[in-house]
Amino acid sequence: MPSNIVPCLWFDGQAEEAANFYISIFKDSKITSVQRYTDAGKEIHGHKAGDVMVVAFEINGQPFTILNGGPQFKLNEAVSFQIMCEDQAEVDYYWSKLGEGGDPAKQQCGWVSDKYGLSWQVVPKILRPLITDPDPEKSRRALQAMMDMKKLDISGLEAAHEGK
Length: 164
Prior knowledge:
Layout: E1 8-11, H1 15-25, E2 29-36, H2 42-45, E3 52-59, E4 62-68, E5 80-85, H3 88-99, E6 111-113, E7 119-124, H4 127-131, H5 136-147, H6 154-162
Parallel strand pairs: 1-4, 5-7
Antiparallel strand pairs: 2-3, 3-4, 6-7
Helix pairs in contact: 5-6
């Protein structure tokens, strides 16, 4: 079922480049349309006719848009996208690909910022059961281990959960 909620990300001139970057990382992804600025509204938008205005794309069936709006707004950590990973290989893949060129200072607890400043949470699916375990000591240890990590390590989380 198609989603009627479509995240729109504000960029400053890199919309098409960023969309191509994202679809190169996620296997079931594609650009669905590219809309260009025209002379209409030029006094408001300030872009040349023919410049890329909006790129629509899909990642795993989820639609996204990127607007080349200008320098007025910047991406920040207040919004992030979670990637729920099946195993450590998947965590490693997304962490490596998305983190390439990103700010290492913005890597903590599974969060990674890409080269455009967009924040991603690369999360193994096993994390939630570990940190919500009904045994408060097990969940506390798993949560503490997560807090001490940059890229999440499933075996380290499981070992902490078990008190090892």
